[in-house]
Write a structure and sequence with these properties.
rod-shaped, alpha+beta, seven-stranded antiparallel sheet, 204 residues
Length: 204
């Protein structure tokens, strides 16, 4: 080894480097490799566990009656609120576009969705526009209210709507439409019957 103040000789430099290489190689044992892998795994586990998770906050329920009251007050126009099972989830209740009150449901026991829309001061032309020109295919009567059934030949062209029924309610038009089955749509129609009778009576 070089003394203080004296530079290393080539032989000493070579010996020092050789010793460093030997010590480094001796440290790379299988045991050290396993220890390093375990340490790395522990760090990964800590990172994964420290990331905040938890379940997403439940979507707040929509009070359809309360929203309807606000709309009715703001537009000075009566709006309908169907009486449907409380288990049906409400995704939306709002004015949809120009002068159209709309409620979107996800009924229980049905894989589809159902929308109830009331167009103020509208006629059957609104139905066709909403359903991309779908033609009537017949009628059904639910609690004394006659509904037009629309034949949806191509749901992809009608906003993924596969079934729709529409009726007159005073000066308005009401559509029940979506991907839910006809039986589910009839439940909503039944829940609207009395309000539709009232609107038709008031318009006479």
């Amino acid at each position: 080894m070089a003394e203080l103040g004296r530079p290393e000789t080539p032989e000493e430099t070579a010996a020092r480097k050789a010793e460093s290489s030997r010590v480094y190689r001796s440290s790379q044992t299988f045991r050290n490799l396993i220890a390093a892998l375990l340490a790395t795994l522990a760090i990964v586990v800590v990172i994964v566990l420290s990331v905040p998770r938890g379940t997403p906050a439940a979507q707040g329920s929509i009070d359809v009656a309360s929203v309807a009251q606000q709309v009715q007050s703001g537009y000075d126009h009566p709006v309908v609120v169907p009486h449907v099972p409380t288990s049906w989830r409400v995704n939306e209740a709002a004015i949809d576009g120009s002068d159209t009150w709309s409620i979107a449901y996800v009924p229980t026991g049905d894989k589809g969705y159902l929308r109830v829309s009331q167009a103020f001061d509208a006629d059957t032309a609104w139905d066709a526009q909403k359903l991309s020109g779908a033609a009537p295919s017949g009628t059904i009567v639910v609690d004394g209210v006659t509904w037009t059934v629309y034949d949806i030949q191509d749901p992809s062209r009608a906003g993924n709507v596969s079934y729709a029924i529409g009726t007159k309610a005073g000066k308005d038009r009401i559509l029940i439409y979506g991907t839910a089955n006809p039986k589910t749509a009839a439940v909503a129609a039944e829940g609207l019957a009395q309000q539709i009778h009232d609107l038709n009576g008031a318009a006479q």
